[in-house]
Amino acid sequence: MHVPSSNPKGYRFGVFEVDLLAREVRRNGRRIKLQDQPFRVLALLLESHPNMVAREDLRKRLWDEDTFVEFDHGVSNAISRIREALGDSAESSRFIETLPKRGYRFVAPIERIDENLAALSRANKAHFRTVSLPLGDGRRTVAVVPLRLGASVPEDRFLSVALAETIANRLASAPNLVVRPTASVMKYAVKGADWTQIARALNVELVVEGSIQRLGNKLRILLQIWELGNGGTLHSVKVDGEMCDLFSLQDQLVDSVLDALMTPAPRKSAPIAAPAARHPLAFELYLRAIDRAVFFDKLELTSVIEMLERAIDLDPGFADAWGMLATVCYHMGAHVDPDPKWFDRSEKAAAGTLELDPVNCDAFCTRGMILWSPLRGFQFRPA
């Protein structure tokens, strides 16, 4: 039986996870921005849950003795930053309760995280004798790991996560595959993580991973499919392409993976409901938007919306861009800027998505979240 450690590696509450080792806050597996001082305040509130943390204790633990004069402003600013990151508010608090002139208390239920991926790799190998079992209906479970970049070039970083997500979305259309969401894979895709650890942590049979090499406008992508049951490579492929033709490169990668995994059913039995983008720049903007959308920050989300609107201007039939625009506008209105215009824009984008792709998951999920929101009166059954 696992005994919780006295020093947890982090905490989980709702869709959020706080990693004390990496000093990160993640929402659905995606990192959100939170500066160092607000992070330390949040960590102390979680550590003290469900008890109140007095303002004086905050000052003694987190502020120097000579910053007493600036403390009131500092702690108020830190709490505001935390609430902004979590989509919380002082008026209708879901996470942090303010006790006037006394202190603060974290009020949501929390779960301690006492193990991380590093601990798993050091554990006794006998603990990992079991492997992911088939679902019993012929389907196979797959995780697509963000691709490794051959060189650390900041402007190319978007390719790593965005290409993995678009590949995962395409694979999810196959009737015999169950694909883990990219957000759930992100926290395991750490440098040096072995594919077997990722497979066991996510309880999947197959792991798709690879690398990206770039020379000027030329790209070379290497993909491998690892199978946990056999302990080796099931399939590998090398695809060369250009930055100006990313969607064609993605199609080649996905077709190769589907050919390897869709036996005996032919790959063409799982067509995409709506055509992918046919404009190179539109698709690149879409990939860059996926990469930036992980940051719940008004400036970042505004930039994402602008990229998606530009992509749609270039390719009005790009259903995935419409669907993502609906989702990002929802998050802007629900977590960053309470202006009702964002929900209106989100609903219009969702409607535009479904005109192009009647079964688009992003559009349906976004419409459900909007219906089940304070502005729409928590319409549970329609949502």
Short structural description:
With 383 residues, the chain is α+β, with helices and mostly antiparallel strands. It has 3 domains: 104 residues, Winged helix-like DNA-binding domain superfamily/Winged helix DNA-binding domain (Arc Repressor Mutant, subunit A), CATH 1.10.10; 144 residues, Rossmann fold; 97 residues, Serine Threonine Protein Phosphatase 5, Tetratricopeptide repeat (Alpha Horseshoe). It has 13 helices and 14 strands.
Structure explained in plain terms:
This protein has 383 residues and is of the alpha+beta class. The protein has 3 domains: 10-113, Winged helix-like DNA-binding domain superfamily/Winged helix DNA-binding domain (Arc Repressor Mutant, subunit A, Orthogonal Bundle), CATH 1.10.10; 126-269, Rossmann fold (3-Layer(aba) Sandwich), CATH 3.40.50.10070; 280-376, Tetratricopeptide repeat domain (Serine Threonine Protein Phosphatase 5, Tetratricopeptide repeat, Alpha Horseshoe), CATH 1.25.40.10. It is 43% helix and 18% strand. The chain has 13 helices and 14 strands. It has helices at residues 36-48, 55-62, 68-86, 117-122, 157-171, 182-186, 195-202, 246-261, 280-292, 298-314, 319-336, 341-356, 361-371; strands spanning 10-13, 16-19, 24-27, 30-32, 53-54, 96-99, 103-106, 111-113, 140-144, 148-149, 177-179, 206-215, 218-227, 232-242. Strands 9, 10, 11, 12, 13 and 14 form a 6-stranded mixed sheet that branches. A hairpin with a 4-residue loop joins β13 (218-227) and β14 (232-242). The longest helix is centred in the first third of the chain and has 19 residues, at 68-86. The chain is globular and about 65 Å long. The two termini are 40 Å apart.
